[in-house]
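My main concern about presentation is that the manuscript never shows what a single data entry looks like. Each protein is reduced to its one-letter sequence and a matching series of backbone shape codes. For the editor and my fellow referees, an illustration may be useful. For illustration, here is how one protein appears when written out as sequence plus structure tokens:
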Amino acid sequence: MKNKIDINCDLGEGMTHDAEIMPFISSANIACGFHAGDVGTIKATIDLCLQHDVHIGAHPSFDDRANFGRTEIKLSDEELYDMVTFQIQLLDHAAKKAGASLHHVKPHGALYNMAAGNRQMAFIISTAIHDYNDELILYGLANSLLIEEGLLAGLKVYRETFADRTYQDSGQLTSRSQKYALLENEEKVSKQVIQILKGSINSVHGKEIHLEADTICIHGDGHHALSFAKCIYTTLEENGIQLMKPSIR
């Protein structure tokens, strides 16, 4: 079992519990205004990250506030490149203004899911990140094309798994439109986290899927976000697992 793990959470999305979640995570993926958030929430979330020694990440999305960035949109390669670059730049400038630095980039919603299975999109996103700053870490779904293309682009990658989502036999996340896409029980979440730390996960059909995880995600917009964050933190403590929280200043 791993003895250290990164716990990331999507924040700055207009929820009320961001400050309460901060003590239980090590990385924050901050909405860049395209699916949620604005200049004020970006600044406030960065300030919270600095208070709690949490890594600052950009969470770029399709320009789709009406659907919270969860609707697939077809863009040209140039449009996709520019969209991702703009949002990274926005977060980077805000972080620098606060005296901090940008640590990682994690695509949001439909952009994340499409890039996991579409090699050209994964290539464009990875290229945009590398061209902007090749020291930024790319967060992507473990065993996905986004991770493959990130590595090919020369980026450091964090292979991401989910504490509160179910998986298909293919290793892809169950679509949110499906009945059993989300875990709603702390005991199940804790059990899934332990299995992830041991290097695998069970699909909704009971198939064991091998995966290597560098980071585990908690969804900040979920009904159980805060209770799950506390549950996972307690699970890690009970098993002697440390959060990856080096200084970010």
Q: What stands out?
A: The longest strand covers residues 4-11. The two ends are 30 Å apart (CA to CA). The helical segments are 18-21, 39-52, 77-97, 109-117, 119-132, 145-152, 186-197, 225-238. The mean pLDDT is 94.
